[in-house]
Structures are given as structure tokens and as C-alpha cells.
Specification:
Layout: E1 3-8, E2 27-28, E3 35-41, H1 57-76, E4 103-109, E5 114-121, E6 128-130, E7 156-157, H2 163-166, E8 175-176, E9 182-187, E10 193-206, E11 209-223, E12 231-234, H3 242-246, E13 254-258, E14 266-271, E15 281-284, E16 296-304, E17 307-308, E18 321-325, E19 332-334, H4 336-349, E20 355-356, E21 365-366, E22 380-384, E23 389-391, E24 399-400, E25 403-404, E26 406-408, E27 417-419, E28 428-432, E29 437-441
Parallel strand pairs: 1-3, 5-12, 6-11, 18-27, 19-26
Antiparallel strand pairs: 1-14, 2-3, 3-4, 4-5, 4-10, 6-12, 7-10, 8-9, 9-10, 10-11, 13-14, 13-28, 15-29, 16-17, 16-18, 16-22, 20-21, 22-23, 24-25, 28-29
Length: about 450
């Protein structure tokens, strides 16, 4: 069975979506037993007005760069924080972009189920939501009423002397608290943080589809975030992620998602192997330098307007460059030489349009005011090990607010690159951990 979490962001009720669901109700397909769950863009029109000013693209990219640097740093160093007992890794990930490039699902925590709108992130494995009691100033504003574990008949704090607690106790601040409950503390490089009690409760993904004893952080202290989400669910490749905890009965060690290319199109998150595998271009999934949470592929080439970039073979060492596929990073980070060639080719193809001031770290931005949508954006394609070629959705998978959604890694920084979520728009991205491959299927949402 494949569990499909699907959303329709702004489509009128009278217009059917690709997933054929309403954005406010669950449906079950009897033909393939797929369970559909609404997933919405974080800035959908029905969200309440935010109490804090939304950050600029520059602020989003600043946080994005911090996340990317942290990922690269983790991917190249030894796992000094690995648990000596069972090897389970729960990394302290960075804060997440709060621009409209992040996506959320609404799931239910506890019994009775309380709807919570949470970020989904393939570059993280730990799940957490804000919980009561949370004093004034200790937690951030959020979309939904805060979860109160005291009202759930299935809620259980994880004891500090349990294996589940010991598996995360290497993180700073994690371990036993005064009341013998397992505590957790997550500190992010951008200054945000989350702390509380490591817990378990029933997670409802759709009516009748639950994960009993789902382990997550019940945060009673939260700070530094600039979004209105209720928390986060990680999809990373580790035992703590939703994918692992839902296996094998639901997901079977695989999941996929499609991030919508426009504000009016539908997307989804799916747990499990699709029943129809046609249309996917597959590339091998590689271990990510001792860090289990990340999913890594090998980039072997890039083309602009149908022409391969003119870069020396040394630009892709060992026949390719390792790239971490991450739904929580906004833009794509490339080695310095391929990025320089990409930028030059893209600028030549866009010579008819005036350049705008760069927004660090992106340096190829355009002033497209007055063109009324009559802009011809050159196609960009990425080729991976095994010959899988991905033609990026044009223009939504290439430009973000008029800027080329790529940046170059400084030559003195070594490690993996990152494929951001802008480049993934419109594709069903399948992470098949059993077959050790990543698949891309175009025009999936």
C-alpha cells in the first residue's frame, strides 16, 4: 500500500485537481488502496495572517546558506556524535527557510487526533511540535491550536532510562530531566532552537491510517523561528524519521513527494512504493559520508538550452559530484567551476533582459518588470550517474523571484553539493531506500 499525502493549494472547488481531492477532506481510492491526505503550501490563502513580517528573499537565502554550510560540514566529517550502542544518529539540523518555498502537511497527533500543520524535510530525521504548557514568550505563534499532551489518552513521555532516550542522548542537552522524562534540545545554526520532552503518541496520517507510538519531541520552549508552522516531520534516512517509523506496514522503506511548480497546482507526499513506476528516471543512491540522514546522488553534467556546459572533467571529480537531495534547502549549490559555466551560459541566453542587483548568495538576478510574462527562460537540465536526465520545470524550477536558483560553492570548501527544492518543483522525487536509488518523474504535479 502506498500512503499518499496530497494537497491542492488554490484550485477552485469546482476544478478537479490531478489528485482529485478537496483540500479539506480525506478520500480513499478503493482501486489501489492509496490514502489521500491534504498537504498545503505554507502560504496558502486560507492561512491566518501572520503576526510577524515575512522575511525577504535575502533573509531566506541567508538562512538557506547557513543550512547548506551545515549540511556540507556534516557530510565530510567523521560521525563523532554517533551512539556507540546502536549507531542511531539524530542530527541537530539548521533552521528552515520561512519563504514560500517550504511545504507542509496536516496530520493528527494524539487521541483524539489534534490537527497539526508541520514542515516536511528530507534533510532531517527528528520530528517535533510545540506543546502545552508553554509560557508566554517561550513558544512561537503557530497556525493551529497548540497540542496539549494532557488531553491525549495515548500520550506517553519516553523514560530517561529507555533505549529510545539513550539513542539521542549524545546531543547537547538531551537526556534525563528532573522528572525522569527524556529531554531533547535542538539548536540550529541560524539561532533558532527547540527543547522539551521526547515523547510518543499516535500519529494520524489519514482516517484509519495511524502510526502507533510515534516518537517525536514535545517542545515546551521554542525560539528564533519566523514561520507559523506547528513543527516539523523529518523524512531523512534514519530510524527516527517518519519513513522509518511507518515501515514496514505502510511505507516499505520508500517515499516520494512532488512540490508544486505554481500556486495553483497540486502536489503530494507519498509513503510507499508507487504502484506505477513508469516515467521515472533513476540514479543510484549513495551513502552520505557516514551521515545516514542524507540522501546523496551523483551529478555528472549540466546543460543550458540543450547544450552541455563546457567544463573540464576535473570539475566533476571521480566521474561526478556528490549532491544531497534536500527538500529543506531552497537553491542548488554546485562546485565552483560548473557553476561559473552555468552562470555564463545562462546569462548569454538571457542577454535580452536587464540584470538586477544580486541577492547573496545568488548572483544572477533579473529585472523582469514590464515584460508581462513574455520572458523566454533557457531550459536547464541536470544529468546524473546512470544517464538519468532531469529537465527542470521552466521557469518555476529555474528562477526564484527572478534569480537563477543556483549558487557556487567556494573552491576552498570541500564536500557534497545540495539539490534544493526549487529545482525539484514539478517532479515526483522518489527515494527508494530498498533498491538504493532516487527517481525523478516529470510533470507529476
Amino acid at each position: 500500500m502506498q500512503l499518499l499525502l496530497c494537497f491542492d493549494r488554490t484550485r477552485p472547488r469546482t476544478q478537479p485537481s490531478r489528485c482529485s481531492i478537496s483540500a479539506k477532506r480525506y478520500l480513499t481510492s478503493s482501486s489501489n488502496r492509496r490514502v489521500l491526505l491534504p498537504q498545503v503550501h505554507r502560504r496558502r490563502p486560507s492561512l491566518p495572517a501572520q503576526t510577524k513580517q515575512e522575511p525577504s528573499l535575502a533573509e531566506t537565502l541567508r538562512r538557506d546558506e547557513a543550512r547548506r554550510n551545515h549540511i556540507i560540514g556534516r557530510s565530510v566529517r567523521q560521525m563523532a556524535v554517533q551512539s556507540p550502542n546502536n549507531g542511531v544518529v539524530v542530527p541537530a539540523e539548521l533552521g528552515y527557510s520561512v519563504d514560500s518555498l517550504e511545504y507542509v502537511v496536516t496530520v493528527g497527533f494524539g487521541t483524539p487526533a489534534v490537527p497539526q500543520t508541520v514542515l516536511i524535510d528530507s534533510g532531517s530525521d527528528f520530528a517535533w511540535i510545540q506543546c502545552k504548557p508553554c509560557g508566554s514568550g517561550n513558544c512561537d505563534p503557530q497556525k493551529d491550536p497548540m497540542f496539549d499532551p494532557r488531553k491525549s489518552s495515548t500520550y506517553t513521555p519516553i523514560p530517561c532510562n529507555s533505549d529510545a532516550c539513550r539513542s539521542i542522548s549524545y546531543n547537547e542537552g538531551n537526556g534525563c530531566t528532573e522528572d525522569s522524562a527524556c529531554g531533547f534540545t535542538l539548536s540550529y545554526a541560524d539561532g533558532s532552537n527547540s527543547a522539551g520532552v521526547y515523547s510518543s503518541d499516535k500519529l494520524t496520517l489519514a482516517p484509519g491510517v495511524t502510526v502507533d507510538g510515534f516518537r517525536f519531541g514535545c517542545a515546551h520552549g521554542q525560539g528564533g523561528r519566523d514561520d507559523m508552522s506547528d513543527g516539523l516531520i523529518g523524512l531523512g534516512n534514519s530510524p527516527e524519521s517518519l519513513v522509518s517509523q511507518a515501515s514496514p506496514s505502510n511505507s516499505g522503506g520508500a517515499f516520494s513527494y512532488c512540490l508544486p511548480p505554481t500556486a495553483s497546482s497540486a502536489g503530494f507526499l507519498a509513503l510507499g512504493v508507487p504502484s506505477d513506476m513508469s516515467g521515472f528516471a533513476f540514479t543510484p543512491m549513495h551513502p552520505s559520508d557516514h551521515i545516514a540522514v542524507f540522501y546523496k546522488v551523483t551529478l555528472t553534467g549540466i546543460s543550458v538550452a540543450g547544450r552541455p556546459l563546457d567544463v573540464p572533467p576535473s570539475a566533476f571529480p571521480h566521474g561526478g559530484f556528490g549532491m544531497i537531495v534536500d527538500s529543506g534547502t531552497v537553491i542548488t549549490w554546485l562546485p565552483a567551476a560548473p557553476y561559473a559555466a552555468l552562470r555564463a551560459a545562462f546569462r548569454r541566453a538571457m542577454a535580452a533582459y536587464p540584470l538586477a542587483a544580486p541577492i547573496h548568495p545568488v548572483d544572477t538576478c533579473y529585472n523582469l518588470t514590464g515584460y508581462d510574462g513574455n520572458v523566454t527562460v533557457p531550459g536547464v537540465a541536470m544529468t546524473f550517474l546512470g544517464g538519468a536526465t532531469v529537465e527542470l520545470d521552466n521557469p518555476s524550477g529555474i528562477l526564484v523571484e527572478g534569480c537563477l536558483a543556483f549558487a557556487g560553492v567556494r573552491p576552498d570548501i570541500h564536500g557534497n553539493g545540495v539539490i534544493g527544492n526549487v529545482n525539484q518543483r514539478g517532479f515526483e522525487v522518489l527515494y527508494d531506500t530498498k533498491q538504493l536509488r532516487v527517481g525523478f518523474r516529470a510533470e507529476a504535479c
